[in-house]
Amino acid sequence: MGYDLAIGDRAYSSWSLRGWLLFTKTGLPVSVRMGRMYGPEFQRLLEDFAPAGLVPALRLPSGRVIAETLAIAETLAERHPEAGIWPADPEARAVARWLAAEMHAGFGALRGHCAMNLRVAYADCAPPEGVLKDLARIESLWALARRDFGAGGPWLFGRWSAADAFFAPVAARIAGHALPVGPEAAAYVRTQITDPAFVAWRRAGLAEGPDQPAYARDWPTRPWPEG
Ligand SMILES: N[C@@H](CCC(=O)N[C@@H](CS)C(=O)NCC(=O)O)C(=O)O
């Protein structure tokens, strides 16, 4: 018996994307079960993963179900130290945990105004002040990670780590809502949305059935930035 991961719509469920990336980017095997959110199939999925209540939810090989993406990341890191979930260097690891935790708990304005929707890209979402403030904070955290730990590759800490899983949907929101960021942040956004794992996830999300009406916004659109 291996890992079972419950996820929601790939096009809309940002937390599911984070959970799935933790497996896919580290090569840890997992069996994925998707339920389209807000429908009866999703209710059945949640019942099967009770008492989790939200996605992603993870059934461990023992049968125990856990939830909360940060807890899933820490559990996988502890069980698979060789998988490289967090950076190897202790100082980089401490900062990576900080950034992931700040993301997990924060950026409410950005998350509220710019829901993740991988089926559409907006040319202008009229970002309010709170969104711009969140963006500035995100850019400063990304710049710090890249400056102090990013020399070995294009990810926040050089090599891919769980911090990048936590910021993948943030990058998708920036790309999908034409949010204004500087060239370094824009390069990191490109790294995220052109990564083969993200591209495969998005492609699968485009094919998962009709659009979810709750995510429709009345903003001008443009083509998805990276094809
Ligand atoms: N703090 C949770 C958030 C999980 C979450 O909000 N999941 C959303 C999908 S992105 C969900 O299950 N929504 C279904 C619902 O609210 O019924 C985590 O870190 O995993």
TrEMBL record:
Domain of life assignment: Bacteria
Official protein name in the record: Glutathione S-transferase
Coiled coil: none
InterPro entries: Glutathione-S-Trfase_C_sf, Glutathione_S-Trfase_N, Thioredoxin-like_sf
Keyword terms: Transferase
One Pfam family, short name: GST_N_2
Domain (GST N-terminal) ranges: 1-84
GO molecular function: transferase activity
Biological source species: Phaeovulum vinaykumarii
KW Metal-binding (keyword) present: no
Alphabetized SUPFAM superfamilies for the sequence: GST C-terminal domain-like, Thioredoxin-like
